[in-house]
Write a structure and sequence with these properties.
Elements lengths: L1 E11 L5 E11 L3 E5 L6 H8 L7 E6 L2 E2 H4 L5 E5 L10 H11 L4 H14 L15 H13 L5 E5 L7 H17 L4 E6 L2 H7 L2 E5 L6 E6 L6
Parallel strand pairs: 3-8, 3-9, 6-7, 7-8
Antiparallel strand pairs: 1-2, 1-4, 4-5, 9-10
Helix pairs in contact: 3-4, 3-5, 4-5
The structure holds adenosine-5'-diphosphate (ADP) (2 copies).
Length: 226
Protein backbone atom coordinates (compact mmCIF):
# COMPACT_ATOMS: atom_id res chain seq x y z
CA UNK A 1 0.00 0.00 0.00
CA UNK A 2 1.15 3.50 -0.80
CA UNK A 3 0.88 5.86 2.17
CA UNK A 4 2.27 9.11 0.79
CA UNK A 5 2.69 10.18 -2.81
CA UNK A 6 4.46 13.33 -3.95
CA UNK A 7 4.38 14.29 -7.60
CA UNK A 8 6.47 17.30 -8.64
CA UNK A 9 5.61 18.69 -5.22
CA UNK A 10 6.73 22.30 -4.78
CA UNK A 11 6.44 25.05 -2.21
CA UNK A 12 7.20 28.70 -2.84
CA UNK A 13 6.57 30.81 0.27
CA UNK A 14 4.74 34.13 -0.10
CA UNK A 15 8.05 35.98 0.25
CA UNK A 16 9.35 34.24 -2.87
CA UNK A 17 11.53 31.60 -1.19
CA UNK A 18 11.43 28.29 -3.03
CA UNK A 19 11.63 25.80 -0.16
CA UNK A 20 10.75 22.62 -2.06
CA UNK A 21 11.17 22.06 -5.76
CA UNK A 22 9.49 19.35 -7.82
CA UNK A 23 9.90 16.46 -5.43
CA UNK A 24 8.73 13.01 -6.57
CA UNK A 25 8.50 10.33 -3.93
CA UNK A 26 6.28 7.40 -3.07
CA UNK A 27 6.22 6.01 0.47
CA UNK A 28 4.85 2.55 1.24
CA UNK A 29 3.13 1.20 4.32
CA UNK A 30 5.54 0.05 7.02
CA UNK A 31 8.54 1.98 5.76
CA UNK A 32 10.91 3.88 8.01
CA UNK A 33 12.02 6.66 5.73
CA UNK A 34 14.53 9.31 6.72
CA UNK A 35 14.88 12.69 5.04
CA UNK A 36 18.48 13.82 5.28
CA UNK A 37 19.86 17.14 4.18
CA UNK A 38 21.43 20.36 5.38
CA UNK A 39 19.50 22.88 7.43
CA UNK A 40 17.16 24.94 5.28
CA UNK A 41 16.80 22.37 2.49
CA UNK A 42 13.04 22.10 2.96
CA UNK A 43 12.60 19.04 5.22
CA UNK A 44 10.24 20.75 7.64
CA UNK A 45 8.30 22.30 4.78
CA UNK A 46 7.65 18.83 3.34
CA UNK A 47 6.43 17.70 6.76
CA UNK A 48 4.16 20.71 7.14
CA UNK A 49 2.63 19.92 3.78
CA UNK A 50 2.12 16.25 4.68
CA UNK A 51 0.39 17.27 7.90
CA UNK A 52 -1.73 19.89 6.15
CA UNK A 53 -0.17 22.82 8.06
CA UNK A 54 1.08 24.35 4.84
CA UNK A 55 -0.33 24.16 1.34
CA UNK A 56 1.70 23.05 -1.66
CA UNK A 57 2.07 25.73 -4.33
CA UNK A 58 2.77 23.22 -7.07
CA UNK A 59 2.45 19.56 -7.89
CA UNK A 60 0.39 17.00 -6.07
CA UNK A 61 0.48 15.46 -2.62
CA UNK A 62 -1.68 12.55 -1.47
CA UNK A 63 -1.59 11.14 2.07
CA UNK A 64 -3.31 7.80 2.58
CA UNK A 65 -5.31 8.38 -0.56
CA UNK A 66 -6.63 11.84 0.34
CA UNK A 67 -5.24 15.35 0.02
CA UNK A 68 -3.06 16.50 2.90
CA UNK A 69 -5.66 19.01 4.03
CA UNK A 70 -8.07 16.20 4.72
CA UNK A 71 -5.28 14.18 6.31
CA UNK A 72 -4.89 16.89 8.96
CA UNK A 73 -8.25 15.91 10.40
CA UNK A 74 -7.44 12.22 10.48
CA UNK A 75 -6.58 10.36 13.63
CA UNK A 76 -4.13 8.00 11.99
CA UNK A 77 -1.33 10.57 11.70
CA UNK A 78 0.77 11.75 14.65
CA UNK A 79 3.77 14.07 14.97
CA UNK A 80 6.74 14.41 17.26
CA UNK A 81 8.83 17.57 17.14
CA UNK A 82 12.18 18.46 18.61
CA UNK A 83 10.61 20.95 21.03
CA UNK A 84 8.38 18.33 22.58
CA UNK A 85 5.29 20.64 23.03
CA UNK A 86 3.94 19.04 26.23
CA UNK A 87 1.35 21.15 28.02
CA UNK A 88 3.30 22.55 31.00
CA UNK A 89 0.38 22.67 33.46
CA UNK A 90 -0.78 19.11 32.84
CA UNK A 91 0.74 15.97 34.30
CA UNK A 92 2.49 13.48 32.03
CA UNK A 93 -0.49 11.14 31.94
CA UNK A 94 -2.93 14.00 31.25
CA UNK A 95 -0.72 15.08 28.34
CA UNK A 96 -0.70 11.55 26.96
CA UNK A 97 -4.46 11.11 27.38
CA UNK A 98 -5.23 14.36 25.58
CA UNK A 99 -5.38 13.00 21.99
CA UNK A 100 -7.87 10.37 23.20
CA UNK A 101 -9.93 12.95 25.07
CA UNK A 102 -10.20 14.98 21.87
CA UNK A 103 -11.56 11.85 20.23
CA UNK A 104 -14.19 11.27 22.88
CA UNK A 105 -12.70 8.08 24.31
CA UNK A 106 -14.05 7.21 27.78
CA UNK A 107 -12.03 8.21 30.84
CA UNK A 108 -11.34 4.61 31.83
CA UNK A 109 -10.10 3.62 28.40
CA UNK A 110 -7.98 6.79 28.12
CA UNK A 111 -6.31 5.93 31.38
CA UNK A 112 -5.62 2.34 30.32
CA UNK A 113 -4.21 3.30 26.94
CA UNK A 114 -2.05 6.09 28.40
CA UNK A 115 -0.65 3.71 30.99
CA UNK A 116 0.10 1.19 28.26
CA UNK A 117 2.14 3.59 26.11
CA UNK A 118 3.84 5.21 29.11
CA UNK A 119 5.04 1.77 30.17
CA UNK A 120 6.25 1.15 26.61
CA UNK A 121 8.52 4.20 26.82
CA UNK A 122 9.61 3.48 30.41
CA UNK A 123 7.71 6.28 32.15
CA UNK A 124 5.43 4.14 34.29
CA UNK A 125 6.92 5.67 37.46
CA UNK A 126 6.52 9.27 36.25
CA UNK A 127 2.91 9.35 35.13
CA UNK A 128 1.88 11.90 37.75
CA UNK A 129 4.95 14.12 37.27
CA UNK A 130 4.72 17.54 35.67
CA UNK A 131 6.71 18.09 32.46
CA UNK A 132 9.14 20.49 34.18
CA UNK A 133 10.15 17.69 36.56
CA UNK A 134 11.37 15.50 33.68
CA UNK A 135 14.76 15.42 31.97
CA UNK A 136 15.03 16.17 28.26
CA UNK A 137 15.02 12.49 27.36
CA UNK A 138 12.00 11.81 29.56
CA UNK A 139 10.09 14.70 28.00
CA UNK A 140 10.84 13.23 24.59
CA UNK A 141 9.61 9.82 25.77
CA UNK A 142 6.41 11.45 26.99
CA UNK A 143 5.98 13.13 23.59
CA UNK A 144 6.49 9.81 21.84
CA UNK A 145 3.93 8.19 24.15
CA UNK A 146 1.44 10.94 23.35
CA UNK A 147 2.03 10.40 19.63
CA UNK A 148 1.60 6.63 19.92
CA UNK A 149 -1.44 6.57 22.20
CA UNK A 150 -3.98 6.70 19.38
CA UNK A 151 -2.14 3.97 17.42
CA UNK A 152 -1.23 6.11 14.41
CA UNK A 153 -0.48 4.52 11.08
CA UNK A 154 1.76 7.38 10.02
CA UNK A 155 4.24 8.85 12.51
CA UNK A 156 6.11 11.99 11.51
CA UNK A 157 9.17 12.93 13.53
CA UNK A 158 10.99 16.21 12.85
CA UNK A 159 14.49 15.97 14.36
CA UNK A 160 13.01 14.50 17.54
CA UNK A 161 16.33 13.60 19.13
CA UNK A 162 18.32 16.63 17.96
CA UNK A 163 18.43 18.33 21.36
CA UNK A 164 19.35 15.25 23.39
CA UNK A 165 22.71 14.10 24.68
CA UNK A 166 24.35 11.22 22.80
CA UNK A 167 23.52 8.45 25.28
CA UNK A 168 19.87 9.42 25.59
CA UNK A 169 19.67 9.73 21.82
CA UNK A 170 21.03 6.24 21.25
CA UNK A 171 18.72 4.75 23.86
CA UNK A 172 15.69 6.40 22.29
CA UNK A 173 16.78 5.33 18.79
CA UNK A 174 16.78 1.70 19.93
CA UNK A 175 13.41 2.11 21.64
CA UNK A 176 11.90 3.69 18.57
CA UNK A 177 13.17 0.84 16.37
CA UNK A 178 11.68 -1.71 18.71
CA UNK A 179 8.29 0.08 18.74
CA UNK A 180 8.31 0.29 14.95
CA UNK A 181 9.16 -3.41 14.58
CA UNK A 182 6.24 -4.34 16.84
CA UNK A 183 3.78 -2.79 14.38
CA UNK A 184 4.38 -3.81 10.76
CA UNK A 185 1.72 -1.34 9.60
CA UNK A 186 3.31 1.73 11.16
CA UNK A 187 5.04 4.02 8.70
CA UNK A 188 7.61 6.42 10.12
CA UNK A 189 8.89 9.52 8.36
CA UNK A 190 11.86 10.94 10.20
CA UNK A 191 13.76 14.16 9.56
CA UNK A 192 17.39 14.40 10.57
CA UNK A 193 20.53 16.11 9.33
CA UNK A 194 22.55 13.31 10.91
CA UNK A 195 23.54 10.72 8.30
CA UNK A 196 24.55 8.16 10.93
CA UNK A 197 21.17 8.41 12.60
CA UNK A 198 19.46 7.92 9.23
CA UNK A 199 21.50 4.84 8.32
CA UNK A 200 20.95 3.33 11.75
CA UNK A 201 17.19 3.84 11.83
CA UNK A 202 15.71 3.73 8.40
CA UNK A 203 14.86 1.36 5.57
CA UNK A 204 15.22 4.16 2.99
CA UNK A 205 16.92 7.52 2.95
CA UNK A 206 15.80 10.46 0.85
CA UNK A 207 18.88 12.61 0.39
CA UNK A 208 18.04 16.26 -0.13
CA UNK A 209 20.10 18.92 -1.85
CA UNK A 210 20.71 22.32 -0.28
CA UNK A 211 18.04 24.89 -0.98
CA UNK A 212 15.83 24.78 -2.96
CA UNK A 213 14.92 21.39 -1.58
CA UNK A 214 15.05 18.69 -4.20
CA UNK A 215 15.48 15.01 -3.63
CA UNK A 216 18.89 14.10 -4.92
CA UNK A 217 18.73 10.37 -4.42
CA UNK A 218 16.72 7.73 -2.59
CA UNK A 219 18.85 5.00 -1.06
CA UNK A 220 17.73 1.60 0.24
CA UNK A 221 19.34 0.75 3.56
CA UNK A 222 20.21 -2.92 3.99
CA UNK A 223 18.60 -4.46 7.08
CA UNK A 224 21.35 -5.54 9.49
CA UNK A 225 19.13 -7.62 11.82
CA UNK A 226 16.39 -9.30 9.78
P1 LIG B 1 14.70 22.49 6.93
O1 LIG B 1 13.60 21.88 7.73
O2 LIG B 1 15.34 21.52 5.99
O3 LIG B 1 15.72 23.16 7.79
P2 LIG B 1 12.67 24.40 6.06
O4 LIG B 1 11.64 23.60 5.37
O5 LIG B 1 12.41 24.85 7.44
O6 LIG B 1 14.08 23.61 5.97
O7 LIG B 1 12.98 25.69 5.18
C1 LIG B 1 13.31 25.66 3.81
C2 LIG B 1 13.57 27.08 3.30
O8 LIG B 1 12.37 27.82 3.32
C3 LIG B 1 14.54 27.85 4.17
O9 LIG B 1 15.29 28.67 3.32
C4 LIG B 1 13.64 28.68 5.08
O10 LIG B 1 14.27 29.86 5.49
C5 LIG B 1 12.47 28.96 4.17
N1 LIG B 1 11.20 29.09 4.93
C6 LIG B 1 10.70 28.22 5.83
N2 LIG B 1 9.50 28.59 6.25
C7 LIG B 1 9.22 29.75 5.58
C8 LIG B 1 8.11 30.65 5.57
N3 LIG B 1 7.01 30.41 6.30
N4 LIG B 1 8.19 31.72 4.77
C9 LIG B 1 9.28 31.94 4.01
N5 LIG B 1 10.35 31.15 3.97
C10 LIG B 1 10.33 30.07 4.75
P1 LIG C 1 0.32 28.46 3.89
O1 LIG C 1 1.04 27.35 3.23
O2 LIG C 1 -0.92 28.01 4.59
O3 LIG C 1 0.08 29.59 2.93
P2 LIG C 1 2.85 29.29 5.05
O4 LIG C 1 3.53 28.03 5.45
O5 LIG C 1 3.21 29.86 3.71
O6 LIG C 1 1.25 29.03 5.08
O7 LIG C 1 3.18 30.37 6.18
C1 LIG C 1 2.27 31.39 6.61
C2 LIG C 1 2.97 32.75 6.75
O8 LIG C 1 4.00 32.78 7.77
C3 LIG C 1 3.63 33.18 5.44
O9 LIG C 1 3.01 34.37 5.00
C4 LIG C 1 5.09 33.40 5.78
O10 LIG C 1 5.58 34.56 5.15
C5 LIG C 1 5.14 33.55 7.30
N1 LIG C 1 6.43 32.98 7.83
C6 LIG C 1 6.52 31.96 8.69
N2 LIG C 1 7.81 31.61 8.93
C7 LIG C 1 8.57 32.45 8.17
C8 LIG C 1 9.97 32.58 7.94
N3 LIG C 1 10.88 31.77 8.52
N4 LIG C 1 10.39 33.53 7.09
C9 LIG C 1 9.49 34.33 6.48
N5 LIG C 1 8.17 34.25 6.68
C10 LIG C 1 7.69 33.32 7.49
Amino acid sequence: KEWVRMERLSKVYPNGTTAVKEVDLSIREGEFLCFVGPSGCGKSTIFKMITGLSNPTGGKLTVMGTTANEARKRSDTAFVFQDHTLLPWSSVIDNVMLPLALRGVSRKERQQEAERVLAMVGLQDHMRSMPRELSGGMKMRASIARALVAKPKLLLMDEPFGALDEITRQTLQLELLSLWRQDPEMTILFVTHNVFEAVFLSTRIAVMTPRPGKIDDVIDVPVPFP
